[in-house]
């Protein structure tokens, strides 16, 4: 899910950038007057004497963008129930960092605008634009590891939720009580359908549209409806029963192909996946490649003539927004990360260094979509409106450049990000201190030219993604062998140590690699009951000789710590620490280089 999300958002960045440039060109062309005229074109729905009408810009900002925020709600719901936000120790640091990354930029802005005509724009520099940030990280490449992407994505989710709350609380001008009561009744009707387990899409679409209209008429911004409905969508992990039915249906189609069997197989496979995940898969491309770029086209256009730029250069609004994004975000996220780590409130994923974290904090100053959104709510004066937009463009561009420079020059010069009770920052070894021996778990030929040693954790999602990649490398390279050593991250993954014990029990029966593959294929199901079931499949007694198993795992862990392993997965290729990306192409290149030098 996370990888698919990253691909979609990063790939759409170029489309979003093109839309932004087109808006600026249009607003500064000889036909500039048509830009505002076009987006103020009214469009509505009428039925008899009843009519509902908005101009095109409001249809985009209030209507289409509700789908964008609906997707944020879906993402929040998924991450809380099944993803990264279910681990409180992992969410604590990015959540506090997100809070700091909003509080400090708002403070920087108010330092320049408190009591002035632009004071209401303090919310403009608070939000991070996920699409642009992930696009910059895609350009950065291997200098931004997966754990940092995961950290920044979690931060962005919390950031979006806080931004929506701020919009709802501070940028609601007036309330219509009858419309608000109508919205409450419609929301109750949706909750009732959910409680009764009635899953008819037309009913939800009709009620959702009516709720959107009622919320819009109430004075509360309808984006709140989008995220609320997204959070309400069911999300669940596939049950064994549904997976079994799906497998049987697919097998039935394979043995006797027919249109009816194909339809049944597709239906069973679809039902095994939650509605939340299916909606994300369908709506993300529309949001990323259509809705957000159209929003940029409708809102990013601002005149950049000499008078406007001179006014912006001395405007506390433009300067406050730019400094809030460039300086406020960087300082706020840095402080918001350092504080919970210092107090031991949580941990960071993977083996991050402070240079990488600084780069991530810098690029988080790219505030575009939600920032433009708040500009439209905060300023009625056209001059302040344009100055704020110029501040957004300048601050976001400078933040992107600063982040790229940090990743380019200083990303690997800091110490490991760790809580205060961890070992102090150190110069980590670059070679494997304990060579491969007869006690290791080895897959591949004994006289292989290239040996990959993996320190892994059966519950680590990054190890899970690496598992098929390493299998493919072994399949394509008969002169490569893989050595697996245990390194369970107990503070992050509560089932990792138990899974390692069961794997060692299987090793006692000569079935380590069978259990290794089985555990990685079922990473989301590693409770004691699950582990006992896997052991029964391989005719293994899971909890026998536990002291001996724990001692064996401890040997691997001690060798890992001596070799500078601080997170998983960590690879050594022919005894040398591997520092590249954990993708097939990067690891294959490293294997070929070691083969040539062997």
TrEMBL record:
It comes from the Bacteria. InterPro entries: Na/H_antiporter_dom_sf, NhaA, Thioredoxin-like_fold, Thioredoxin-like_sf, Thioredoxin_domain. It holds the Pfam family Na_H_antiport_1. It catalyses: Na(+)(in) + 2 H(+)(out) = Na(+)(out) + 2 H(+)(in). The keyword Transmembrane helix applies. It is a multi-pass membrane protein. The chain crosses the membrane at residues 58-78, 90-112, 124-143, 150-171, 177-196, 203-236, 286-304, 316-337, 357-379, 391-411. The keyword ATP-binding does not apply. It is found in: Cell inner membrane; Cell membrane. Residues 417-596 form the Thioredoxin domain. Coiled coil: none annotated. Keywords: Antiport, Cell membrane, Ion transport, Membrane, Sodium, Sodium transport, Transmembrane, Transmembrane helix, Transport. Na(+)/H(+) antiporter that extrudes sodium in exchange for external protons. Belongs to the NhaA Na(+)/H(+) (TC 2.A.33) antiporter family. HAMAP family: NhaA. PANTHER family: NA(+)_H(+) ANTIPORTER NHAA (PTHR30341:SF0), SODIUM ION/PROTON ANTIPORTER NHAA-RELATED (PTHR30341). This is Na(+)/H(+) antiporter NhaA. It comes from Nonomuraea maheshkhaliensis. The gene is nhaA.
């Amino acid at each position: 899910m996370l990888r698919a999300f990253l691909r979609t958002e990063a790939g759409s960045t170029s489309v979003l950038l093109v839309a932004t440039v087109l808006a600026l060109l249009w607003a500064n062309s000889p036909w500039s007057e048509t830009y505002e005229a076009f987006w103020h074109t009214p469009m509505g729905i009428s039925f008899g004497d009843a009519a509902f009408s908005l101009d095109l810009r409001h249809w985009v900002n209030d209507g289409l963008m509700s789908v964008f925020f609906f997707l944020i709600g879906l993402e929040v719901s998924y991450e809380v129930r099944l993803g990264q936000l279910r681990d409180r120790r992992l969410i604590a640091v990015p959540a506090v960092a997100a809070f700091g990354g909003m509080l400090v930029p708002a403070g920087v802005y108010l330092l320049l605008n408190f009591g002035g005509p632009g004071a209401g724009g303090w919310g403009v520099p608070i939000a991070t634009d996920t699409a642009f940030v992930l696009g910059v990280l895609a350009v950065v490449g291997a200098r931004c590891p997966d754990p940092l992407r995961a950290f920044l994505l979690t931060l962005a989710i919390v950031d979006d939720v806080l931004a929506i709350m701020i919009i709802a609380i501070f940028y609601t001008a007036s309330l219509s009580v009858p419309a608000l009561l109508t919205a409450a009744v419609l929301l109750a009707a949706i909750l009732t359908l959910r409680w009764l387990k009635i899953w008819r899409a037309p009913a939800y679409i009709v009620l959702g549209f009516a709720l959107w209209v009622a919320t819009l008429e109430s004075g509360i911004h309808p984006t709140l409806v989008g995220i609320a409905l997204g959070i309400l969508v069911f999300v669940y992990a596939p049950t064994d029963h549904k997976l079994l039915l799906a497998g049987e249906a697919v097998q039935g189609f394979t043995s006797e192909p027919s249109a009816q069997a194909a339809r049944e197989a597709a239906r069973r496979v679809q039902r095994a996946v939650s509605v939340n995940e299916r909606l994300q898969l369908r709506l993300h491309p529309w949001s990323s490649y259509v809705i957000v770029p159209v929003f940029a086209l409708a809102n990013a256009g601002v005149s950049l003539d000499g008078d406007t730029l001179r006014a912006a250069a001395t405007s506390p609004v433009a300067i406050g927004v730019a400094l809030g994004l460039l300086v406020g975000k960087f300082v706020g996220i840095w402080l918001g990360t350092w504080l919970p780590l210092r107090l031991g409130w949580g941990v960071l994923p993977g083996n991050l260094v402070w240079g990488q974290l600084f780069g991530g904090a810098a690029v988080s100053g790219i505030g575009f979509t939600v920032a433009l959104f708040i500009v439209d709510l905060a300023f009625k004066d056209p001059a302040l409106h344009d100055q704020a937009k110029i501040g957004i463009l300048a601050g976001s561009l400078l933040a992107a450049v600063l982040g790229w420079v940090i990743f380019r020059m200083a990303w690997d010069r800091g110490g490991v990000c760790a809580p205060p009770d961890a070992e102090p920052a150190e110069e980590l070894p670059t070679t494997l201190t304990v060579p491969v021996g007869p006690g290791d778990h080895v897959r591949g030929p004994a006289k292989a030219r290239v040996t990959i040693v993996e320190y892994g954790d059966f519950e680590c999602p990054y190890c899970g993604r690496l598992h098929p990649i390493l299998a493919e490398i072994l399949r394509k390279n008969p002169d490569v062998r893989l050595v697996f050593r245990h390194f369970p991250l107990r503070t992050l993954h509560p089932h990792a140590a138990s899974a390692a014990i069961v794997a060692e029990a299987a090793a006692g029966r000569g079935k380590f690699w069978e259990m290794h593959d089985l555990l990685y294929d079922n990473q989301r199901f590693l409770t004691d009951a699950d582990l006992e079931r896997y052991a029964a499949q391989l005719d293994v007694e899971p909890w026998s000789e536990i002291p001996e198993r724990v001692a064996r795992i401890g040997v691997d862990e001690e060798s890992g710590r001596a070799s500078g392993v601080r997170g998983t997965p960590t690879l050594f290729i022919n005894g040398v620490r591997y520092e590249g990306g954990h993708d097939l192409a990067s690891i294959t290149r490293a294997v070929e280089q070691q083969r040539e030098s062997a």
